[in-house]
């Protein structure tokens, strides 16, 4: 089957070519993002593969359907970038990667926390310039600290397990309670208690209408002063400008993010020789107590291998007329819209 691969990076192409001999698909790679201006490139392709920063809204789906596309496969667990309802109306099936290594994202979140708390990037930059002064590098012990896990699905629970190993107290916030989280002596609490008690807040929930800007000016005003905020889930969970104000006032002690609300025009690109027009992210990265990485939490051999193998298998099942075990159905879309973590 001919498959249009949008946002196809070199590492994706290499792994796909290793996987493909057993499936014999015709992958055609496009460096560009999928969007209203590029959807015509998919004309004649029965299947299209996308990533989290591609735009797959109603307009794009209409163009895809008119061009003969009947399957959209996203290389992600979350699917907030796809108008699933419009896809159903247009007869386009949508599949995702329902499960891949939750350890990759959870471990990266812990890495961000350690780097932020102990000022590791600042120390690294200092010593490379011959500065071995410790002033300004003091952090705090994690043992005994209270960690709020917002979203206790698979990734959130793995993150909680690691933090329990550090001797942290665990608070959970989720519409569905996880027995695995509770086995770690994690206790669920309401939003007010979470905000008042947490020394560290880590986001692991999907982006839905209910979770959009779950971190905002109102909630930040209620957090424990000096708390650290970690986000490896979706950029839209945080009102970035509100976070900047909380950093300026000292209400937030630090922020570490691997995702950003307006990342589509920035991430996965080398802009080191360009003027970045996004003033918000420029302000954000100017803070000494902020770490920003470019959506790499998923990026391990194990996770990416599973993501691509699952996607190729879904495309093969579609081509053969077999059931699509990873299809995003109407009921699943409704569940996600109620805020249930899916990763």
Structure description:
This protein is an alpha/beta fold. It has two domains: 2-100 and 301-337, Rossmann fold (3-Layer(aba) Sandwich), CATH 3.40.50.720; 102-292, NAD(P)-binding Rossmann-like Domain (Rossmann fold, 3-Layer(aba) Sandwich), CATH 3.40.50. Helices cover 36% and strands 14% of the residues. The chain contains 13 helices and twelve strands. The protein has helices at residues 10-19, 58-66, 84-90, 102-117, 120-128, 154-165, 179-183, 191-197, 217-220, 240-249, 279-285, 301-320, 330-337, and strands spanning 2-5, 26-29, 47-50, 71-74, 93-95, 146-150, 169-173, 187-188, 200-203, 227-231, 252-257, 290-292. A seven-stranded parallel sheet has the order 8-7-6-9-10-11-12, sandwiched between helices. The radius of gyration is 21 Å and the shape is globular. The two termini are 29 Å apart. Mean pLDDT is 93; it is low at 333-343.
Break the fold down into its secondary structure elements and pairings:
Layout: E1 2-5, H1 10-19, E2 26-29, E3 47-50, H2 58-66, E4 71-74, H3 84-90, E5 93-95, H4 102-117, H5 120-128, E6 146-150, H6 154-165, E7 169-173, H7 179-183, E8 187-188, H8 191-197, E9 200-203, H9 217-220, E10 227-231, H10 240-249, E11 252-257, H11 279-285, E12 290-292, H12 301-320, H13 330-337
Parallel strand pairs: 1-2, 1-3, 3-4, 4-5, 6-7, 6-9, 7-8, 9-10, 10-11, 11-12
Largest sheet: 7 strands, parallel
Strand order of the largest sheet: 8-7-6-9-10-11-12
Q: pLDDT below 50 for ≥5 consecutive residues: which ranges? A: 333-343
Cα end-to-end separation: 29 Å
Q: Can you tell me the overall shape?
A: globular
CATH domain class of the largest domain? Alpha Beta
Give the helix level as a range of percent. Answer: 25-40%
């Amino acid at each position: 089957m001919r498959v249009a691969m949008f946002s196809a990076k070199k590492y994706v192409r290499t792994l796909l070519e290793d996987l493909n001999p057993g499936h014999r698909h015709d992958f055609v790679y496009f460096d560009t993002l999928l969007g209203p201006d590029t959807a015509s490139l998919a004309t004649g392709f029965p299947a299209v593969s996308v990533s989290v920063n591609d735009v797959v809204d109603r307009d794009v789906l209409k163009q895809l359907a008119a061009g003969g596309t009947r399957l959209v496969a996203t290389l992600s667990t979350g699917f907030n970038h796809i108008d699933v309802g419009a896809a159903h109306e247009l007869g386009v099936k949508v599949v995702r990667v329902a499960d891949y290594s939750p350890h990759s994202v959870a471990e990266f979140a812990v890495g961000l926390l350690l780097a932020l708390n102990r000022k590791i990037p600042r120390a690294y930059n200092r010593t490379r310039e011959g500065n071995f002064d410790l002033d300004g590098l003091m952090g705090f012990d994690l043992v005994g600290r209270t960690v709020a896990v917002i979203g206790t699905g698979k990734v959130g629970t793995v993150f909680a397990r690691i933090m329990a190993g550090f001797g942290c107290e665990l608070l959970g916030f989720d519409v569905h309670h996880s027995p695995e989280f509770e086995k770690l002596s994690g206790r669920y609490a309401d939003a007010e208690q979470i905000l008042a008690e947490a020394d560290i807040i880590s986001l692991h929930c999907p982006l839905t209408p209910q979770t959009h800007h779950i971190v905002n000016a109102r909630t930040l005003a209620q957090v424990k002063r000096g708390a650290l905020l970690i986000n490896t889930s979706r950029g839209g969970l945080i009102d970035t400008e509100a976070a900047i104000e909380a950093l300026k006032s000292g209400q937030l002690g630090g922020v570490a993010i691997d995702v950003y609300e307006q990342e589509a025009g920035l991430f996965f690109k080398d802009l080191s020789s360009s003027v970045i027009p996004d003033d918000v992210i420029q302000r954000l990265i100017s803070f000494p107590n902020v770490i920003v990485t470019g959506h790499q939490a998923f990026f391990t051999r194990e996770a990416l291998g599973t993501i691509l193998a699952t996607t190729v298998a879904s495309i093969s099942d579609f081509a053969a007329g077999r059931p699509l075990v990873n299809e995003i159905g109407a009921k699943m879309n409704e569940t996600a819209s109620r805020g249930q973590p899916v990763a």
